Amino acid sequence: MPAQLPPGKRLIKLFQRRKCWMLAELAQSLGCALISARRHLKHLGYFRSYTQNGKWYTLREFPQFNRDGLWQHKDIGFSKHGSLIATIVHLVARSPSGLSARELGQKLQHPCHAVLTNLHKSQRLDRVELGGEFRYLAIEQPVNRRQREQAAVLAPSLPVTSLSTQAALWVLVDYIKNSALSFEQLAAGLQEQRQLTVSPESIRQFFQEHELKKTSEAPT
Fold first, then answer.
1. Inside any domain, residue 1
2. Which residues contact residue 151 at a Cβ distance below 8 angstroms, ignoring those fewer than 6 apart?
3. Does residue 72 form part of some domain?
4. pLDDT per residue over 35-85, tens digit each?
5. In this structure, are residues 123 and 177 in contact, taking their beta carbons and an 8 Å threshold?
6. Do 12 and 52 fall into the same domain?
């Protein structure tokens, strides 16, 4: 790479070789400090990944965003909306009936259960339980009201005999700890300890679907 080229042009050449870089790698390749590399990036315009703690950078001209404003390069995710939190809030707000952690994970190609829990605790997202899983909703009215109404319309068509991944995990954890618990007790434990509303019949169906054998149940 010609040394006489200014840093901005050298930066463009680096990104022409590889679409995604970490800041430290760029600074080393340019022979400058991190703050200078960041300044050159800002001048050209860039996006920072919402995956892997935002450590990847790409130039603004590269991403070909889908209808959700997302772009995946190998296992690195970029969003035109910014960080993972900002992207989740945006996607939830524009969904007619809210989104579950499973649906968001599919869109983002990235797990987000913990982030959603924190967003709900910090009152940046609302949520409602349907069909054994939470649907996350916008806080702002009247969007929240419309999403709740639409989610209620969809509720009868949701599979009430299937557990969400989160609910299934906790059911198995509680069952391993005490295999004598009845389906009713497992459901009550989820509600009390995990704030997950799941019917005993859903748990029974889950055991049947996966051919899990229940031992003798403790009295309810």
1. no
2. 97, 98, 128, 130, 135, 137
3. no
4. 999 999 999 999 999 999 999 999 999 999 999 999 999 999 999 999 999
5. no
6. yes
Q: Give 131: exposed, middle or buried? Use CB within 10 Å, 0-12, 13-18, 19+.
A: buried
Residue 68, burial from CB neighbour count under 10 angstroms (0-12, 13-18, 19+) = middle
pTM of the entire predicted model:
0.68
Question: Could you tell me if 96 and 153 lie in one domain?
Answer: yes
Q: Tally the domains of the chain.
A: 3
The answer to whether the peptide bond before residue 142 is cis (omega within 30 degrees of 0) is yes
Q: Tell me the one-letter amino acid at 122.
A: S
Q: Are 129 and 158 in contact (CB under 8 A)?
A: no
Residue 162's pLDDT is 56
Q: For residue 89, is it within any domain?
A: yes
114 domain residue, yes or no: yes
Q: DSSP assignment, residue 192?
A: I
> Which range of residues forms the domain containing residue 194?
165-209
What CATH number is given to the structural domain containing 36? 1.10.10.10
DSSP 49-81: -SSGGG-EEEETTS----TTSEEEETTEEEETT
212 Cβ partners below 8 Å, 6+ apart? 175, 206
Per-residue confidence (pLDDT) for residue 158, from 0 to 100: 47
**Angstrom distances, CA of residue 54 to CA of 12, 20, 39, 74, 76:** 20, 12, 17, 15, 9
Q: Cα separation of 130 and 197, whole Å?
A: 8
